[in-house]
Design goal:
single chain; alpha/beta; FAD/NAD(P)-binding domain; 17 strands; binds flavin-adenine dinucleotide
């Protein structure tokens, strides 16, 4: 794309999934884009350790219907994205299954009761032997959520980074910045710093998640399985080559590092699925900090030429497509169906009359 004097100059700070996908969706606009990340490309961030579950129904207890609809739109986006991608992103929409051991069965029953009212068509009780035969020794039935999907986050990040590097009008810098440092130099600054935006978003808190990745040549799954657990909703995501990710703990903490207790809980949950996990090879055990707002839902904040995308909590991959799309439509002064929920009503669908908004939750 050739440069013209009228091109807008945009900076994105932070190349987690929100910054990366926003940059990716800006690649075909007539703009100059600089993307900064202090950790490089890919950066070791929450987005790098995520499970990649695209699971709005499993999370329905925390979401109003408009968020579920937005999530389904986002899954469709990922499906197209994976279809057009140069590499295999392990995207699959085979649904997911919720199961529980006998002592935790009450959690599954409570969930079934909730979803039967909130989204009656979304879940179906099934025999495990028909869906995940390797689990049939220890589990008889489960709840099948047929619209859920999953994708491999690291492959997505690599794919986006390599695509951005092919575009002349996009530059990537391994460098730290604050939005206010850059606000005179660019038409728009998109702040995607995750937990590092805490100085500008007083309500932002971190929720730590720990995960383990193992290889088990003796075991197979066709789809993610959610094991109901009294302390965290645990899920096992199958990857290629008999690799499985189990995640994730959910701890109100900004301390980093994986505890022995969490490691034992994650690994014994895996072992409780199938005895072959006793011989599995541990590939990695990691943690990340989920940027979270008080309602555990993401939000877009606007203040003059700074647009902040943050608070995606457990839903960064699930909701990044709609957040990136809404931020770009806002900049380009186009209507957007999701802008209203993402700005908590501060900006409406038809926002051609843009106004500077006072930043909610500002420090
Ligand atoms: C264990 C775990 C499992 C998860 N599983 C899922 C899942 O299955 N599905 C799902 O949808 N979500 C999941 N999530 C949530 C998801 O990972 C987060 O919601 C999402 O990654 C947040 O993305 P982000 O881009 O806002 O922040 P981040 O990924 O944290 O990225 C922020 C980036 O900003 C950079 N940065 C910070 N400050 C500066 C600065 N001053 N200058 C330059 N760069 C800066 C950082 O280096 C970092 O790269 C999971 C999270 C965890 C921790």
């Amino acid at each position: 794309m050739s440069s013209t004097q009228n091109q807008q100059k945009i900076a994105i700070i932070g190349a987690g999934i929100l910054g990366l996908l926003t940059a990716y969706r800006l690649k075909d606009e007539n703009i100059q884009l600089d993307l900064y990340d202090q950790g490089g490309f890919p950066a070791p961030c929450a987005s790098y350790v995520a499970g990649g579950m695209l699971a709005p129904y499993s999370e329905i207890e925390h979401m109003q219907p408009e968020w579920v609809q937005a999530s389904l739109d986002a899954i469709q986006y990922w499906q197209e994205f994976a279809k057009n991608s140069k590499t295999d992103l392990d995207f699959a929409q085979n649904g997911s299954i919720m199961i529980a051991h006998a002592p935790d069965r009450y959690i599954l029953e409570r969930f079934k009761d909730h979803i039967s009212h909130a989204a009656p068509q979304a879940g179906q009780n099934v025999n495990i032997k028909d869906y995940e035969p390797m689990l049939k020794e220890r589990f008889h039935d489960g709840l099948f959520l047929h619209q859920e999907a999953h994708i491999n986050p690291r492959h997505v990040m690599d794919e986006i980074i390599s695509t951005l590097q092919e575009h002349e009008h996009i530059q990537l810098f391994k460098k730290a910045h604050t939005p206010s440092e850059l606000s005179d130099k660019y038409d728009h600054i998109i702040d995607c710093r995750g937990m590092n935006a805490q100085n500008d978003l007083a309500n932002l808190r971190s929720v730590k998640g720990e995960l383990a990745i193992v290889r088990n040549p003796e075991f197979q799954l066709s789809r993610p399985v959610r094991l109901m657990h009294p302390r965290y909703p645990l899920y096992i995501v199958p990857r290629k080559d008999n690799i499985f990710m189990i995640g994730a703990t959910q701890i109100e903490s900004d301390g980093q590092g994986v505890s022995l207790k969490s490691t034992m809980e994650l690994l014994s949950a895996l072992y409780s699925l199938h005895p072959s996990f006793g011989e599995a090879e541990i590939i990695e055990i990691k943690d990340g900090l989920r940027p979270s707002l008080p309602d555990n839902l993401p939000q877009i904040f606007v203040e003059d030429n700074i647009i902040r995308l943050n608070g995606s909590f457990r839903h960064g991959y699930l909701l990044a497509p709609i957040m990136a799309g809404a931020a770009i439509d806002f900049i380009m002064m186009r209507d957007n169906a999701h802008i209203n929920i993402l700005t908590k009503g501060e900006i409406h669908e038809n926002h051609t009359q843009r106004q500077s908004l006072k930043l909610r939750g500002a420090a």
